[in-house]
């Protein structure tokens, strides 16, 4: 597994012609818009890529266009499914964003792995700063499936930001009803911030928290898959393609503080962003 180290824009304008010869009235010129020009990549899934000089176009795994690079959102297809298509199209490079491709045998396939422990650490910092505003001995709750490594990184972030804040572990199955029940249990134990991994479980936990006007966080609030995809696309412009897993952490900008629950104060968000910058420069350790 390799860490990513970053290694054209092309704009065309077109104009049309004026009025016909025998017209007595003057008509406005008609402008013809040229098709977007640049390095084309295919995109499968809800991922949004907005990088100057790169022209993304929507594809499906069932209908792959002859683009040099196809990036696939891991929410849209599994690494195994992408690997099967990659083997059918050996001249095209594929990148699964947000998942590992370990064990998939396709030399033209890369997994863009985002460091979830970095994200969990920043979530812990945010939760700790927010909780401390209610009192030095406040509580926050991690809700959902038992993911001890991520929960530990979250706890390190909480302690780094607010040593007196306690972390509750409310384990549950990844079923929305169970996640909401676990969140309610944490809230009943005086948690003032609720944290969950993601998906429907996190949505259910957030619903429980918001019913009591308590802020909720999810791992996705601190992960930017489009940044990882954009960095790989930029390298593809220069003919550089990846195979196997490539890791993207805070130092690449793919992990940071995104748009958070509006119940998190501006002061806590400012502190969390400072922690993100410190993590990116190697001044803090999530793991």
Q: Output the CATH homologous superfamily of one domain.
A: Response regulator
Strands of the largest sheet, in order across it?
Answer: 1-11-6-5-4-2-3
User: Which regions contain 5 or more consecutive residues with pLDDT less than 50?
Assistant: 7-27
Please name the CATH architecture of one domain: 3-Layer(aba) Sandwich
Q: Give the radius of gyration.
A: 23 Å
Based on CA inertia axes, which overall geometry fits?
elongated
What share of the residues does DSSP label as strand, in percent? Answer: 15-25%
How confident overall, as mean pLDDT?
Answer: 89
Order of helices and strands: EEEEHEEHEHEHEHEHEH
What does this structure look like?
- Helices cover 33% and strands 19% of the residues.
- By secondary structure, it is of the alpha/beta class.
- The protein has a seven-stranded parallel beta sheet with strand order 1-11-6-5-4-2-3, sandwiched between helices. A four-stranded parallel beta sheet has the order 8-7-9-10, sandwiched between helices.
- Strand 7, helix 3 and strand 8 form a beta-alpha-beta unit.
- Helix 4 packs parallel to helix 5.
- The longest helix has 17 residues.
- It is elongated.
- About 7% of the residues have low confidence.
């Amino acid at each position: 597994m390799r860490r990513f180290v970053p290694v054209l824009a092309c704009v065309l304008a077109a104009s049309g012609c004026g009025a016909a010869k025998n017209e007595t009235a003057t008509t406005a010129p008609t402008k013809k818009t040229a098709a977007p020009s640049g390095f084309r990549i295919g995109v499968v899934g809800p991922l949004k890529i907005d990088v100057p000089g790169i022209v993304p176009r929507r594809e499906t795994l069932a209908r792959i266009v002859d683009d040099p690079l196809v990036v696939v959102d891991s929410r849209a297809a599994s690494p195994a499914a992408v690997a099967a298509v990659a083997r059918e199209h050996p001249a095209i490079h594929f990148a699964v964003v947000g998942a590992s491709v370990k064990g998939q045998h396709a030399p033209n396939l890369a997994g863009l792995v985002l460091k979830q422990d970095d994200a969990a650490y920043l979530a812990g910092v945010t939760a700790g700063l927010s909780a401390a505003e209610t009192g030095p001995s406040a509580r926050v709750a991690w809700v959902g499936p038992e993911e001890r490594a991520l929960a530990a990184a979250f706890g390190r972030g909480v302690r780094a930001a607010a040593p007196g804040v306690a972390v509750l572990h409310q384990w549950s199955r990844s079923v929305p009803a169970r996640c909401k029940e676990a969140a309610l249990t944490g809230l009943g134990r005086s948690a003032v911030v609720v944290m969950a991994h993601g998906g429907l479980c996190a949505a259910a936990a957030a619903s429980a928290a918001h019913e009591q006007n308590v802020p909720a966080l999810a791992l996705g609030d601190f992960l930017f898959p489009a940044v990882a995809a954009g960095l790989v696309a930029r390298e593809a412009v220069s003919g550089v393609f990846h195979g196997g897993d490539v890791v993207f952490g805070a130092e690449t900008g793919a992990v940071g503080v995104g748009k958070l629950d509006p119940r998190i104060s501006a002061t806590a968000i400012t502190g969390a962003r400072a922690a993100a910058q410190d993590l990116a420069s190697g001044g803090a350790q999530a793991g």
